[in-house]
Amino acid sequence: MTLRQISAVLPPEKSWGLWLSRQIVATVMATCGPSTSGVSVEQVDTVLPDGRRLRGEWVRAPEADRAEGAIYFLHGSGYALCSPRTHRRLTAWLSRMTGLPVFCVDYRLAPRHLFPTAAGDVRTGWDWLLETHHAENVVIAGDSAGGHLAVDLLLQPDISHPAGLVLFSPLVDLTFSTAAARERLRRDPAIRSADAVKLVRLYCGDVDPADPRLALNAAAGRALPPTLIQAGGAEMLAADAHRLATDIRSAGGNCELQIWPDQVHVFQALPRLAPEAAQAMSYVASFIAEALSINAFAEERTG
Amino acid sequence: MFGLSSKRTHRADAVVTGAGSGIGAAFAVELARRGGRVVCSDIDEATAQLTVDAITDQGGKAVAVRCDVSKIDEVRGLATQSQAWFGNAPTLVINNAGVGAGGADVGDFSLDDWSWTLGVNLWGPIHGCHVFAPILREEGPSKQPRGIINVASAAAFGAAPGMAAYNVSKAGVLSLSETMAAELSGSGVAVTVLCPTFVKTNIVDAGRITAASTDFANRLMRWTGVSSERVARTCLDTHDRGGLYCMPQIDAKIGWNIKRFVPETYTRTLGLAARIGPQ
């Protein structure tokens, strides 16, 4: 892989550098991603009663029409690079594996929209989804920066919690100092921490990284719903995954951490490159089924 | 015999001190990559745990143990815990933990800093050898060859001005290793002493060094430093060959030879360079 060298020479603060980075990520995800056959996509562009605008897309596998539950998906890639379109192969696979419709929110990206725009859009999407779904029938999933957005959302005091949380290679420490310590032991094949910092700074701007909505303190906050974290052993964000799992547990939450040896960042989106992705995803599907069935069971008992 | 590597650093049961960062972390990761089980000890258990995570995430076996090597009781505890975790005696011990100190001439450098430096850099390896040498020696002829690696520095013979405590501590480690190599010859326990110059690690930031010197040392490290992984790999390969001295960088080798052949000229030139060089 030469992504590391490529990402090192593309300046994210220049528009051509950012454009090229977006093209490369989209191409890699399209070439190595799973197939989208049989999956229907419905664009959503609506305005909530309180005037907030929401954009996103429903991704439905054929058998996902009748399902009561849903997955709320927060895509990743440094707040600046990706979209529901780049992640459609992943969300489509998720829908096929779980038999649930997946709503992928199209939050506005940096550098045009700064912190906390993306977090606000994610909140809007969750509020909109809960107009038609019960929170306990929904699982939130996210990858990379989407993991940061998900944890940030769930740490807010006035948010209903979903049945479960699934995170692929979540980004936790936006200063990348956790990741840099890991990088000194093993280089990440995709990107250097110094370049990743530049990318994320497009979103954070000059906001103090100690801001509680940037420096997520999951250890002292609300206990999160049952969580599954998967990360690759070859990526520097494996260190973030460890930290988040420890924090969630010390806040009294239930968290399962899986590190897949030799795998790269969000390898679940690249099954043509990493055969382990299929194994990881089928585990995700059974985790989600279990999280939803526990809640359904509890409802039956109380109702 | 067949398929079983007879190399000391392969499939080793290794104890590494100061494994939370720098060369120690690189040693631990490389040993795990070579199929070994690694006890990662550090005075800061959280950083040792980071190294352990990096190893276990890739399917390796490692455990973190807190240990202040300047305290003999803690080193004894480290030996007990390691043996319990391995289920047998360790086969490789790397006395790596060290701190940087300098920036003031003899007389200006506080005695407090002297004893802190010697406590970690000199007494640390002494404690390590005192506790582990008998364990390695007693193990007797077994399938797995055994060894000790002590991490000294090119400062052991470099005698750079303004770093007396560090130089003395590392010279002590060099002498300790040479002595043990003689004592342990024929016992099956190999001894290697590592003398690197500048390696990209956090020793400058973590040590007690004046700000100006820190800045200069950091710049030097950036220019001339090789990565700690490369130093660790080179040293483990030297150890496999049974080599006593490991000078992983060309400047260390050159300095070592000049010092051996023209010691007085070397020292005078060094003093001159320090007077006209960056302050």
List keywords for this structure.
heterodimer, A: 303 residues, alpha/beta, Rossmann fold, eight-stranded mixed beta sheet, 9 helices, globular, B: 279 residues, seven-stranded parallel beta sheet, two-stranded parallel ribbon, 12 helices, 9 strands
SS element count, helices of chain B: 12
Number of β-strand runs of chain B: 9
List unreliable stretches of 5+ residues of chain B.
Answer: none
Number of domains of chain A: 1
Give the low-confidence spans of chain A.
Answer: none
Oligomer: heterodimer
Estimate what percentage of residues of chain B fall within beta strands.
5-15%
CATH architecture of chain B: 3-Layer(aba) Sandwich
Structural class of chain B: alpha/beta
CATH superfamily of chain A: Alpha/Beta hydrolase fold, catalytic domain
Count up the helices of chain A: 9
Q: Output the helix-strand order of chain B.
A: EHEHEHEEHHEHHEHEHHEHH
Percentage of residues in strands of chain A: 15-25%
The whole-angstrom Rg of chain A is 18 Å
- Determine the CATH superfamily of chain B: NAD(P)-binding Rossmann-like Domain
Identify the overall geometry of chain A: globular
Name the strands of the widest sheet of chain A in spatial order: 1-2-4-3-5-6-7-8
Order of helices and strands of chain A: HHEEEHEHEHEHHEHEH
Describe this structure in words.
The complex is a heterodimer of chains A (303) and B (279). In chain A, helix 4 crosses helix 5 and helix 6 crosses helix 8. With 303 residues, chain A is α/β, with parallel strands linked by helices. In chain A, strand 7, helix 8 and strand 8 form a beta-alpha-beta unit. Chain A is built from nine helices and eight strands. Chain A has one domain: Rossmann fold (3-Layer(aba) Sandwich), CATH 3.40.50.1820. Chain A is globular and about 50 Å long. The model of chain A has no long low-confidence stretch (mean pLDDT 92). Chain A has an eight-stranded mixed beta sheet with strand order 1-2-4-3-5-6-7-8, with helices on both faces. By secondary structure, chain B is α/β, with parallel strands linked by helices. Chain B has a single domain, classed as Rossmann fold (3-Layer(aba) Sandwich), CATH 3.40.50. In chain B, the strands form two sheets. A seven-stranded parallel beta sheet of chain B has the order 3-2-1-4-6-7-9, sandwiched between helices. A two-stranded parallel sheet of chain B has the order 5-8. In chain B, helix 1 links the parallel strand 1 and strand 2. Chain B is globular. Chains A and B meet through helix 6 and helix 8 of A and helix 1 and helix 2 of B.
